[in-house]
Amino acid sequence: xxxxxxxxxxxxxxxxxxxxxxxxxxxxxxxxxxxxxxxxxxxxxxxxxxxxxxxxxxxxxxxxxxxxxxxxxxxxxxxxxxxxxxxxxxxxxxxxxxxxxxxxxxxxxxxxxxxxxxxxxxxxxxxxxxxxxxxxxxxxxxxxxxxxxxxxxxxxxxxxxxxxxxxxxxxxxxxxxxxxxxxxxxxxxxxxxxxxxxxxxxxxxxxxxxxxxxxxxxxxxxxxxxxxxxxxxxxxxxxxxxxxxxxxxxxxxxxxxxxxxxxxxxxxxxxxxxxxxxxxxxxxxxxxxxxxxxxxxxxxxxxxxxxxxxxxxxxxxxxxxxxxxxxxxxxxxxxxxxxxxxxxxxxxxxxxxxxxxxxxxxxxxxxxxxxxxxxx
Length: 376
Hints:
Layout (H helix, E strand, L loop, with lengths): L4 H17 L17 E3 L4 E9 L14 E4 L5 E5 L4 E5 L5 E5 L1 E2 L5 E2 L2 E6 L4 E6 L4 E6 L5 E6 L6 E7 L5 E6 L10 E6 L6 E7 L4 E8 L2 E8 L7 E4 L5 E4 L5 E5 L5 E6 L9 H10 L1 H5 L15 E4 L5 E6 L2 E5 L5 E6 L4 E6 L3 E7 L5 E9 L3
Parallel strand pairs: 7-8
Antiparallel strand pairs: 1-26, 2-29, 3-4, 4-5, 5-6, 9-10, 10-11, 11-12, 13-14, 14-15, 15-16, 17-18, 19-20, 20-21, 21-22, 23-24, 24-25, 25-26, 27-28, 28-29
C-alpha cells in the first residue's frame, strides 16, 4: 500500500487550514501585559519580545512559507520548518540567518512533504516527511545529512512528531484510504538509533461528512470534519509520558512509559457555546457543503480545548477559545491564561522561549520569538 495523491491532498489541505484558521476567533475576554500584542495573565511570568523573521521585505533566504513548527537547540539557535519550500531555516538567538537544511526531492537528505520536526537540542535534527513516510536525520553543527528512518505505511501516513525526554521519537499516523472504517489514529514510539517502531496509543478519528460534487462531468467525493467535533490532541512530557484528551470534557489523560493509563487531571468547567458567528465561519470554510446542499447539524457546544502543549516547568497549555490558552500545572491547578495577537499561532514552545507565526491579510508569514520568563 502506498500513500496516494488524494491522501496527501487531504494532508496538505489540513496543514494550510490549520495555519490559516489559527487565531481567527477574536473572543478572549482577557487582560494583562501585552508585549508584542500578547496578553499574559500568569502571576510571576513575563514575555519579552525578541527577533522578528520573515515578512514581505525579508531577504530571500529568510522568507518562510507555511511554518508548522519551530524547535531550538541548547545554544539558543532556532530551526523553522518551512513546509512550502521543503527546508528548515536555521537562525541564531538574535535572529541572524545561519543556514538552510534540506531541499526538495526524493533522494537522501531531500524532502517531499516535511510536516514536523524535532531535535535532541545537542546533536541531531529530525524531519518527518509525510509523502516519503520517513524521518530524515541531520547534524545540528553543520546541517549535514546523517541517516534516514523508514516508517512504512502499515500504520497509515505520518502527520506529526515530537521527541520525548526519554530520547524516543513519537510519531502520529493517520489511516490511509482503504484501511477500513474501524481504523484509528496511532501514536508510535520510534527509536532514533535502531529505527524500531512500537505503537503505544490509539486515538479516535474526527467524524467526517462525505461531500459529493460534480466537476467536469465527474463525480468527486471529499470528506470534511464534522463541525466542532471533539478531536484528540496529544503531547509528550519531558519524562516521556504521553498526555492527551479530546475536549469532550475538560479531562487530560496520561500514558506512562510502562503502558499505564490514567487521568492526569479533570476540571469542572462549562464548554463554550457554538455561536451564530461560529456557524457562519464554518460554512465559509467549507463551501462545498452548501454547493452539495448538505444540511449541517451543528452541536450546541464546542470542545473544551482544541490543542495541547507542554510548557516551562512541566506546565500544560490548552487552547480553549481561539487565541486563548489556559496554562495549568500538571495537577490541573490553573496558573493563568495567555492570549495571542490576532492572526497569530504558536509554532514552538520551550523552557525559555515562545515562537509565534503571524499571517497577514496577503498570507505572508512572519516568525516572532519571545523570551519567556517564569517564576520557576
